[in-house]
Amino acid sequence: MNLLPLTAKELEYIADSMSNEDLMIKQCTAGAAICTNPQIQQVLNHQAQVHTQHYQSLLQCLQMHQSLAPTQPQS
């Protein structure tokens, strides 16, 4: 697989997406913790797992491209 370095805009988009996924994980987990309806609690726990998988996928993408990133600041 030939990977190209990520652009600054792509890195920004991935960072924003990871931040959003992290927020969704926290919100679903918090909601499940206070929920008294077991069915809704199950859905919230499942959604927390889904968002955790999304977060991990985004992190993997960054790690795959890490070797292409410059080691020195670009001028």
Automatic annotation (TrEMBL):
Recorded protein name is Spore coat protein
State the InterPro entries in the record.
Ferritin-like (IPR012347), Ferritin-like_SF (IPR009078)
Q: Which domain of life is it from?
A: Bacteria
The record's listing under SUPFAM superfamilies reads: Ferritin-like
